[in-house]
Write a structure and sequence with these properties.
Helix content of chain A: 40-55%
Largest sheet of chain A: 6 strands, parallel
Largest interface: A-B, 22 and 22 residues
Number of strands of chain B: 0
Number of strands of chain A: 10
Oligomer: heterodimer
Largest sheet of chain B: none
CATH topology of the largest domain in chain A: Beta Polymerase, domain 2
Order of helices and strands of chain A: EHHEEHHEHHHHEHEHEEHEEHHHH
Chain lengths: 435, 277
């Protein structure tokens, strides 16, 4: 049994195509049922987000199934196969496993390490289990994907550095001040990005927010939003010495804050550091201010630069995540290989043989007077019992191999007889499950 | 090989391992190796201490009379103080600065190892261990201030220039580094003061004079004034951050000269020759 992936993403298709093949989250029953009804397909999951549409399936006939899935995607959305084909990718076997694990761990996302994709796959899996289109393999596989994503998140720093400008400002503040809890933020002017950054600062526990604006009523409304205090624009500079973090985005044509004023403010503050964030274009704060000791001035471009540096860090972390994924692929494939009939039958036989031998030992120990011939016949009898018992289940398993619910039988046998997982005792045939 | 040499080598290996582990922690961001490094360092201290105690028992005086003993004792003070700081600040990245420093001190101590000479009878006094313990712990505290200062300047430069290396993500905030600088200064300064006073009292009991302008005394006084100026600047003028970091670094250079330069280059009653009698 093979795992298959057919789909497209922000890497392979422009938004005009992606929006056409997206599935509506309110009506997932129909496409899932149609997909499962396709002749080669045994299990079906559909992941549909604004950045990717992917079909996950299992099948014995990989090539046939992939072609069928591509047709299905085109037919369902009434798109011609030619038009769609150039944007579609497909994976099978190990490549498919790897792809899904990478997607779930957010390594294939537009912003590496973003957290939404995991939730989206969980939702997709939720629909599939609601409409019972995911079977033994995809159930186990997607749970694996969730746990791998969690492992990547905790064991690497892939999501630890901010990749948005407003959040990058908060992180920078944390590298200047050790805690933000006794810090005061001042907003000068009202820009959207400033407000967003201020929200982040409030969420990170700053003590006080001051708001100033040329139009005092605007300052008052905004101050109310952050339960802060409005300050008249004419004398905001007199309050600056109490302020640790300044967020500025006025529409003023010149500088609102000059370096020489700031050096006076610093003296009043006894050189306690100040973090100035100037998001306005043209800039509000004299760039010379950055030359002052204990003033850290960042404009929009600087913050963008920080975000890019953080992105680079995330890419470095991604290499570590890939290693984790390689490790997990191997483990999962081991499990997958147990779903093959032959190793299951061998394992079952071995189990029963072990029981037989143990019981024989006990019996022979109690019946010391038996001669060689009698022992032989008891051994033969027990052997025959096992063969008779195993005959029917073995042939059913072999037939079931060709049915869609064959994996169910194999899994059941493994559970009922408590057959060892291959991680404990790897089977001799380690090849991936594709025949 | 005497037991002293064997224990010394084990200590050296422990400090080396701690250095490697701390560097692995910082460079590869491997969290566990930082915790492990702390334990290795702790074991190193224990062995180091046992070694000194055995040595004391063997020769019946504090074995800090030659370059080998001084460097080794300095390393011990440094790591002890670092681990005490580490309890509060939990900074493996600082370990990546301190443990190599201790390692280098130990390597030089190993190179400088010579059989101990007869003790100068003047040193056969309880003032001797008291004097050097204060002085060396003070030195160790200033070394921490130095490391924090270097880290501060690195982090400050990255924040100012807006170009971040991998170290940026590992170094703590400027505020934390500045407070480490301040804390080590407030610990180091009284210790150094006590070191100088105990030395003076001891000198009075031996030579009948508190102060004889021996080069070590002169340089110690210069260093003391430097740190006094820094402490004063911090407390009353509001020096902090970059200026305090630079000052801590200059102070440390002066301290190094007082500690090593005077003993090796100048003459006087603190040279190892004089100590050896």
């Amino acid at each position: 049994m093979n795992i298959l992936v057919v789909g497209l993403s922000h890497k392979s298709a422009p938004v005009e195509i992606r929006e056409k093949v997206a599935f509506s989250p309110t009506a997932m029953a129909e496409p899932l049922k149609q997909m499962l009804a396709l002749p080669e397909i045994s299990e079906a999951v559909i992941v549909s987000t604004c950045n990717r549409v992917e079909l996950y399936a299992t099948s014995r006939d990989s090539e046939g199934a992939i072609s069928r899935l591509k047709d299905f995607l085109g037919d369902y959305h009434q798109l011609s196969r030619e038009k769609l084909n150039e944007h579609l990718y497909d994976y099978q076997g190990e490549a498919a496993i790897k792809h899904v694990l990478r997607v779930a761990a957010s390594l294939d996302s537009m912003v590496i390490g973003e957290p939404q994709i995991l939730g989206q796959i969980k939702t997709a899996y939720g629909y599939a289990s609601e409409y019972k289109t995911a079977g033994v393999i995809l159930n186990r596989f997607l749970h694996k994907a969730f746990s791998v994503a969690k492992r990547v998140r905790t064991e690497t720093a892939i999501a630890s550095n901010a990749v948005s400008v407003s959040f990058a400002a908060v992180e920078l503040a944390r590298k200047i001040f050790s805690n933000l809890e006794d810090k005061t933020v001042m907003l000068i002017g009202a820009g959207e990005m400033c407000e967003l950054a201020a929200k982040h600062f409030v969420n990170n526990g700053v003590a006080e927010v001051l708001v100033t604006n040329r139009t005092f009523s605007k300052a008052e409304t905004l101050a109310e939003e952050f339960s802060g205090r409005a300050v008249a624009f004419e004398n905001f500079q007199d309050q600056l010495h109490q302020v640790d973090i300044v967020l500025s985005s006025t529409g003023a044509p010149g500088y609102v804050l000059h370096a020489d004023k700031l050096s006076k403010v610093l003296r009043l503050r006894r050189n306690k550091p100040m973090f100035l964030i100037d998001i306005a274009v043209p800039r509000d704060i004299d760039p010379l201010a950055n030359k002052l000791d204990s003033v850290y001035l960042y404009d929009v471009d600087d913050l963008q630069g920080v975000v890019q540096a953080n992105m680079k860090e995330r890419h470095k972390e991604a290499a570590e995540a890939e290693a984790i994924i390689e490790e997990e692929i191997k483990q999962f494939q081991l499990w997958l290989s147990t779903l093959e009939v032959k190793p299951t039958v061998i394992s079952l036989r071995r189990k029963l043989e072990e029981i037989r031998q143990a019981e024989l030992q006990k019996t022979f120990a109690n019946l010391a007077g038996l001669d060689k011939k009698e022992r032989k016949s008891i051994e033969a009898m027990t052997n025959a019992i096992i063969n008779k018992i195993l005959h029917k289940p073995t042939s059913i398993l072999k037939d079931a191999q060709n049915n869609s619910d064959g994996n169910l039988y194999i899994d059941a046998v493994r559970t009922l007889f408590d057959l060892p997982e291959p991680t404990v005792e790897p089977p001799k045939e380690k090849k991936p499950a594709n025949d | 090989m005497t037991s002293h040499i064997i224990l010394f080598k084990i200590t050296l290996i422990a400090y080396f391992s701690a250095t490697v582990l701390y560097l692995v922690n910082v460079v590869l961001k491997h969290e566990k190796s930082g915790k492990f490094a702390r334990w290795v360092l702790f074991c190193g201290i224990a062995i180091h201490f046992v070694n000194m105690a055995l040595r004391f028992y063997e020769v019946r005086y504090t074995p800090v009379t030659d370059l080998h003993g001084s460097l080794s004792f300095f390393a011990l003070c440094l790591v002890v103080l670092f681990l005490l700081f580490d309890i509060r600040y939990r900074l493996p990245v600082m370990g990546a600065f301190i443990s190599p420093l201790a390692l280098v001190l130990m390597i030089f101590a190993g190179i400088a190892h010579k059989p101990l000479l007869e003790l100068n009878p003047i040193l056969d006094s309880w003032w001797f261990p008291i004097h050097i313990t204060f002085a060396f712990l003070g030195n160790a505290a200033f070394s921490l201030a130095f490391c924090a200062g270097v880290m501060y300047l690195l982090q400050n430069r990255m924040l100012k220039s807006k170009r971040f290396s991998a170290l940026y993500y590992r170094l703590p905030s400027l505020d934390t580094l500045d407070s480490i600088n301040y804390a080590s200064l407030t610990i180091g300064f009284p210790l150094m003061t006590m070191g100088i006073i105990s030395g003076a009292v001891w000198a009075e009991s031996v030579w009948g004079t508190y102060w004889s302008w021996d080069p070590k005394e002169t340089w110690a006084l210069i260093t003391w004034f430097l740190y006094a100026a820094l402490l004063h600047g911090r407390l009353s003028i509001g020096w902090r951050g970059k200026r305090a970091a630079i000052f801590a670094i200059i102070g440390f250079c002066c301290l190094l000269f007082t500690f090593l330069g005077v003993n090796l280059l100048l003459s006087g009653q603190h040279t190892f020759k004089a100590l050896g009698g």
